[in-house]
Write a structure and sequence with these properties.
By secondary structure, the chain is mainly α. It has 2 domains: 73 residues, Leucine-rich Repeat Variant (Alpha Horseshoe), CATH 1.25.10; 78 residues, no CATH class. The chain is 72% helix and 0% strand.
Length: 180
Amino acid sequence: MAENAQQKKALEQLKSDLFSNDEKVVAKALNKADDIGNFTLVRPLVELWFSTPQDSIKTKVAKMLNELKISQADQELMACALDERYVSVRKDILSFVWNSGGSPDSYIIDLCAIAMNGSFEEAFECLTIVENLTAPLDDVKLTEATLQVREFLSGNPEKSRKAIVLSLYEVLKGLAELEE
């Protein structure tokens, strides 16, 4: 039990060090974070990447987020993608989800909503993520996502948006067929 409390305290210190005013402390914390590979570090890393004015740190953190191979990292990244604080960089966060190899299948409805309502770049990232989701998916969520996308398409969206959302719809129908 003491070891667990000690590990928790070390993790909290690491999170704190990520936001130090001393660039050397931040660099050391980033190296530790990379070695530890704990999913609870994902949100602090996104916040650091989003808020730091230092290009070298931003580049290092982006590389780390793109290469995450941690269980539950995709869930943390999707939570960030849905956070209004990060709407200006949502396409980048979605790119982190895709590049890190996550499969956020429980977020299929959210991914479709972003594709329908966000920027073209966000829609493209969402399409890429959905194309790579693996079965089995939650039937209720898949059906709901498919219905929402079909309804969106019936509303005559702008031409550039329609093409990518139509592709998303075809992928959803294919996923549904795999589920049968």
